[in-house]
UniProtKB/TrEMBL annotation:
InterPro entries: Glyco_trans_2-like (IPR001173), Nucleotide-diphossugar_trans (IPR029044), SAM-dependent_MTases_sf (IPR029063). It comes from uncultured Sphingomonas sp. Gene3D superfamilies: Spore Coat Polysaccharide Biosynthesis Protein SpsA, Chain A, Vaccinia Virus protein VP39. Pfam families: Glycos_transf_2 (PF00535), Methyltransf_23 (PF13489). SUPFAM superfamilies: Nucleotide-diphospho-sugar transferases, S-adenosyl-L-methionine-dependent methyltransferases. One of its GO terms (molecular function) is hexosyltransferase activity. This is Glycosyltransferase 2-like domain-containing protein. Residues 22-146 form the Glycosyltransferase 2-like domain. It comes from the Bacteria.
């Protein structure tokens, strides 16, 4: 093992409350990729970081790269494979938490903070995970899967639906719990991460974040390009759980579906790869060879999936005629946000959010314009209700102030502030939000909602409707105005909800299930729960 002197960055005196996170980077002849992986880790905040690079018998001198990063530990071992390299890092790690970043991947900024926040939210978890995006060799985005949640029974979910987590770098573990299951199985040639997730989730709960925390880089040497190996190892990972499912009917069904699903996934994946390879002569023979191996492993599934893929391709080339129905119009169904048809779409998300956090609405509560939500969701928990408005003629207003003016609200006076669909109407929204944060008592809660995709009420509010927001913009804004706070930002909506919001279709015309599907490409509203830090 080689220890280099601690860098100013890694040796910087940490705050007492910050946990220690170990980041293990296994590398085998990937020295050319190491700098970008290490750089991404050096940017992480919110924890003390211990970095361990495990050289799995490389011949490309990773030490020459590591020595440029003082404070990073380097372990050398004979070539024993990826699982053994990760376990070597696990044995060396001293952190309370641990994550594994392959040398050709990288963490995105804020990844460690995101995953630690999930552990704070659910401290009994053995692992937490975020989402990821796939990039090419030059870090250009290729594809980003939709965020997934493992639900209340992560073991059953992953058993039935396969490796939804996808990328090892998107996962953080409690170190001792990872050690308690024996770490990675060094006898597994591939899919060792999926095998580990299943073993962990048999014993411990998990939590999911829909934020992207890692980037997975595609290049010619990726193990995941070997479809026959990934199929056989994934199928074996499911089979190893057979003893855990024999007495449970639901788990038995999940086992059968998972076993079939893995075969279906890798056969379809390779069939689509063949379609691409047919246009690139040098790759045709390799793609055909892998297909023949897949046929040998699962002939029945191969025949069935070949037909399904062919049908999918035909459908894409021959799209069905679009049926516009009531929506082929340049005038919306309602210009009143759907109030004239029922409950507006954004109100569904607002009221669902406030209902889930109703216990925060307590003590002295401040709301804007009227106390409707304070009364509805706070009830007897509210000791005093205050209403703020710029309009002195508002009979409900107990505080008349302009939030564009700094320090316009009494300081450290409220246990809870409700700010729903208002920030877009304030030009200097940073000043407004800082004033409201200052108005909270230490430990007080801000419940905030802002619009994303929406109609603008041009006739009534067009002259003061300045902004629309995204989850990313609100995350950055909250970090600016409320540093150190416990903040949870969520985006709500999907293409159906967004279309309905724009058309003025009412909540009652959709189902709750349709409304609760989340697609980050269509953010109808963004919600924030933020707890102000206690005074030191």
């Amino acid at each position: 093992m080689h220890d280099t002197p601690a860098s100013d960055q890694l040796a910087e005196a940490p705050r007492q409350a910050e946990p220690l996170v170990s980041v293990v980077i296994p590398t085998f002849n990937y020295a050319r990729f190491l700098p970008e992986a290490l750089d991404s880790i050096m940017l992480q905040k919110g924890a003390r970081i211990e970095v361990i690079v495990v050289d799995d018998g490389s011949t490309d001198d990773p030490a020459s790269v590591v020595q440029r990063y003082p404070g990073v530990k380097l372990i050398h071992q004979e070539n024993r494979g990826l699982a053994a390299a990760r376990n070597a890092g696990l044995r060396e790690a001293t952190g309370d938490y641990i994550t594994f970043v392959d040398a050709d991947d990288r963490l995105v900024e804020g990844a460690v903070e995101t995953l630690l926040a999930e552990f704070r939210r659910k401290p009994d978890c053995g692992l937490v995970h975020g989402s990821y995006r796939s990039v090419d060799a030059d870090w250009r985005a290729i594809w980003q899967p939709k965020p997934v949640s493992l639900g209340d029974d992560g073991f059953a979910t992953l058993l039935e639906r396969g490796n939804l987590i996808g990328v090892p770098a998107a996962v953080m573990y409690r170190t001792e719990r990872l050690r308690s299951v024996g770490g990675f199985d060094e006898q597994v040639p591939a899919n060792e991460d999926y095998d580990l997730y299943l073993r962990m989730l048999r014993r411990f709960p998990a939590a999911s974040s829909d934020r992207v925390v890692a980037e997975y880089r595609y290049h010619d040497a990726n193990m995941s390009r070997n479809a026959p190996l990934m199929l056989s190892s994934g199928r074996d990972a499911v089979r190893r759980q057979q003893d855990a499912v024999h007495a449970d009917g639901a788990l038995k069904r999940a086992f059968r579906r998972g076993h079939a699903g893995i075969q279906r996934y890798w056969i379809r994946s390779q069939l689509r790869e063949l379609q691409r390879a047919l246009r690139r002569a040098p790759e045709r023979s390799e793609a055909v060879g892998q297909l023949l191996k897949l046929f040998g492993q699962a002939p029945h599934h191969f025949v069935r999936e070949s037909g399904a893929v062919a049908l999918d391709l035909a459908r894409k080339r021959l799209p069905t005629k679009l049926r516009w129905g009531s929506l082929r119009r340049t005038e919306p169904l309602s210009r009143d946000f759907g109030y004239d048809r029922g409950t507006p779409i954004d109100r569904f998300y607002i009221e669902d959010f406030l209902g889930r956090h109703s216990t925060d609405i307590r003590g002295v509560v401040l709301e804007i314009k009227d106390p409707t939500y304070t009364r509805r969701f706070g009830g007897e928990r509210v000791a005093r209700s205050e209403v703020l408005d710029i309009d002195a003629g508002n009979a409900n207003a107990t505080i008349v102030a302009d939030l564009n003016t700094p320090a316009s609200v009494p300081s450290q006076n409220f246990d809870c502030v409700l700010l729903t669909q208002t920030l877009q109407l304030i030009y200097d929204y940073r000043t407004a939000l800082r004033s409201l944060v200052d108005a909270l008592k230490p430990g007080g809660t801000l419940l905030l909602t802002v619009p994303g995709i929406t109609q603008i009420a041009h006739r009534d509010l067009g002259h003061t409707w300045y902004w629309a927001f995204t989850r990313s913009s609100i995350e950055r804004l909250m970090a600016e105005v409320m540093p150190g706070a416990d903040v949870r930002v969520e985006a709500h909506g999907n293409v159906l909800a967004a279309t309905s919001q724009l058309q003025g279709i009412a909540t009652e015309e959709l189902t709750e299930r349709e409304l609760k599907v989340r697609d980050l490409d269509y953010q109808v509203i963004v919600t924030v729960r933020a707890v102000k830090p206690l005074l030191p």
